[in-house]
Design brief:
Structural class: alpha/beta
Radius of gyration: 28 Å
Distance between the termini: 8 Å
Strand content: 5-15%
Order of helices and strands: HHHEHHHHHHHHHEHHHHHHHEEEHEEHE
Amino acid sequence: MTQNNNGGGPNGFFDVKKYFLAKNLTKDLPSSIVVFLVALPLCLGIALASGAPLFAGIVTGIIGGVVVGAVSGSQLSVAGPAAGLTVIVLNAITGLGSYEAFLLAVLLAGIMQILLGLVKAGTIANYFPSAVIEGMLAAIGIILIMKQFPHAVGYDADYEGDESFAQTDTHNTFSGITGALAKINYGAVIISLVSLAILIYWPKFKKGAMVPAPLLVVVMGIILGLVFGGGNLALLDKQFVNIPLVKSAGEFFTLFKSPNFSAITNKEVWIVAVTLAVVASLETLLSLEAVDKIDPIKRISPTNRELVAQGIGNITSGLLGGLPMTAVIVRSSANVNAGARTKMSAIFHGVLLLVSLLLIPGVINLIPLSCLAAILLMTGYKLARISLFKHMWHKGLDQFIPFVVTILAVVFTDLLKGVAIGMLIGVFYILRTNLRNPYFYQIIKDGDKKVIHIKLAEEVSFLNKAAIQVTLTSLPKGSDVIIDGSNSRFIDQDVLETIFNYKHNAYTKGIIVQLVDIKDKYDVPKLKELNYKP
């Protein structure tokens, strides 16, 4: 399968006409507002959990939207600071002794990602089993529902955006929910319920298409937050968005930090850089594959180009004092569910982050987290809908079991560990299927004698060796055996050796073996032999 070049223009980069078409902008602009609202608290929460300045989280979100969005070939993926990197970042900042030395590691990681893209390492994304990706999406949906519930009903000390079961506040996902119920705030509950009602019912009105439901939710949330102020339903300060206040352009520019290039000889910096490059690239490829799954137009994103785009983004982030970034499934899913059509949604969301920081931080800080939690609850519901479970069940156990195992593993560990466990189960079922289908087996009666006809498949790989060997050694004595390779384009050398050895020794059991159209050696089929058309 070839990869679609979704970059846009004749040179594969940016087609202005395409991205500024009115029919696309009417979907991309409202979607960018939704992604902006979702990304804002996540950027701040991840920065806080990483031990980095809050400004660094916002800067990373801006770069992920504008820079990565412009270079990426993906139309719906959104990049920004990732929860999966917080532990690595926190330990790196502490271990390296300064934030500036850490920024150098981020820059080096970006260079490594560009190199990975150039050597086409992104093609490993083609080997992620579909059932595992579907399971990852459903797990993210369940995690969103469980993690946002505390914000919807009261307060959660865990940082916004955490996806791991074991939380940094010594709680886990379940105890976080029970803890929130013990601190329930009825003002937050009312805002959440009204927000959910708007998200569900507003799009059903024809006039609702003119005003995005999430924007209406935020306006309503601000109004109710002000109305509840000072009364029994008043929200606490920690139940609002808390964006840094920038009072002037001069103060804004003093917030940027530069990498410490003198730390280039520190081997620990290089270890952190390699770790960031590998983990960020894996998360990006997983996210990209997942977003392509839920893209209603079913476009295929160029994975190698995405690694290059992420590399450019991390270099820029390192130079400006930001955090490492990846393509992020939560923001990307919100983007898809909001109806985005092109990469302009991601770019606009980056611009909105910048504008909010410079021009309206006071207004942004009036937004209750409970109304933003409602938006993420709806996103989670759409990702983990019941119909998806039914669909995977009807596909058979070889798809359903890896799907469910991935969900459980991601929910009870974290994204990368969970996907790794799901991959192991998925690969097991793939191998199991391959082992069962290397040949067609038929027994024909010829008088009192049995003639066993084994017709090999079109492709017989090393993975089929064990099954063929077991079958051959279990054939009854005194049989006539025909091993037919007339349908085979390729037979692995190890399998050929097994077949030839069996023929050589079969006479000791009174078995006569006849080989039909089996060569001494097979070359790997070329694309043109398979009628491949790029």
